[in-house]
C-alpha cells in the first residue's frame, strides 16, 4: 500500500509561514536566552524571518497565477500601505500580521486553527523545557510591582498571554463539546497561570471569556443570539475609550485618588499605560504613517539603566506609533472578520474576538495574527457552525 502525500504551495506554504510566526513569537523574539545562546537565537530569528517571507510570497504568487482576483490587488495595496508605516516606524509586526490575515483567503479555517493550536502548544512546551533546563534566564522583571515569573520571556504578562491564547484556541476547537467542562478548565488554567505570573490582565481576560460563554448559553436559550452583533462596535468603542483615557489620564488618576508616579497597585498599573501613552502622544502627535519610537521594555531598561518606553494599549499603539493609515487598515480587517463570523454563525469565535478586542485596552497581542487567531477568519474559508446553522 503506497501512501501519497500531496503538498500545496498555496495552502501548506501559508500554514508553514503561520507556524514560523508562532515559533518566532513564543521562542525567539523577546525570550531571555542565556548569553551564550543569544547569537544563535538572533541568527535563527533572521533565517526564519526570511523563510517566512519566501513562503508567504510563494503562497500569494501561486494564488495569483491560478486565478487573478480583485482581492489580490486589494491585498497588495494594503500591504504596500503598511510597508510604508513599517519603514517609518522600523517595526514589521503589523505588516506580517496583515499578510497572514490577507493571504489566508479561501484556506479552510479549521486547518488554520488546528495548525495554530498544535504549533503554539509545541512552542510553549519547548519554552518551558528550556526554562527547566536552564537555557533561559529566570528573573523577576520588577520586584516592586510583581513577583510573577516570565518563563524566560521578557515579562510575565507575555507568558500569561501566550498560555491564554492557547487556551482560547483549545476552547474553540472543542466548541461542540461540553461547555461546562470548557469553562471549568479555562478557570483552572487561568488561576494557575495567575499564581505563577501574577498577570492580572490575563486573569481578567479568562474570567470575561468564561462569563461570555455563560451569557452565550443564556442568549441561546432565549433565542437572543443576535445581541452578539454588538461586538462589531467593539473596535471603535474601545479605540475611542483608549484615546479618552489617554487624554484625561491625569484627571482620572486624581479622581481615583492615585499617584501614578509612586503607586504600584493593580489599578495604578493599568492607568500608567495611558499616562505613558499621553507622554508619547505629546512628543509625536498623530501622523499618517506613524512615528519612529525607540521602545524599551522594562527588562532592557533595567539592564541598560535607561528609562523604559512602553506603549501597551493596542489601540494607542496603533494610532500613535503605527499611524492613522494603519489604524484604518486594522479597523477594516477587524470589521471584516466580525462580519464573516456573524454570517457563518460562528458565535464562539465571535465571543473570542470580543475578548481579544477587550484585551487590546491593556495589551498589544490583539493585533498580532500569530496570537489573535480569530483575525485569521477574515478571508479564510470559514465553515458554517453546524450547531447554529
Describe the structure.
The structure is a single chain. The longest helix has 29 residues, at 38-66. With 389 residues, this protein is an all-alpha fold. Residues 260-264 have low confidence and may be disordered. It is built from 15 helices and no strands.
Itemize the secondary structure elements and their pairings.
Elements: H1 9-28, H2 38-66, H3 70-89, H4 93-102, H5 109-132, H6 156-173, H7 179-197, H8 200-221, H9 234-247, H10 249-255, H11 266-284, H12 298-304, H13 314-322, H14 324-343, H15 347-359
Helix pairs in contact: 1-2, 1-5, 3-4, 5-6, 6-7, 6-8, 7-8, 8-15, 9-11, 10-11, 11-13, 13-14
Mean of residue pLDDT values: 86
Q: What is the C-alpha radius of gyration, as a whole number of Å?
A: 21 Å
User: Tell me about the biggest sheet?
Assistant: none
H/E element sequence? HHHHHHHHHHHHHHH
* Low-pLDDT segments: 260-264
Percent of residues in beta strands? under 5%
Distance between the termini: 40 Å
In DSSP terms, counting alpha (H) and pi (I) runs of 4 or more, how many helices? Answer: 15
Q: Which structural class do you get from the secondary structure elements?
A: mainly alpha
Instruction: Tell the overall outline.
Output: globular
Query: What percentage of residues falls in helices of 4 or more residues?
Result: 55-70%
Oligomer: single chain
Strand runs, count? 0
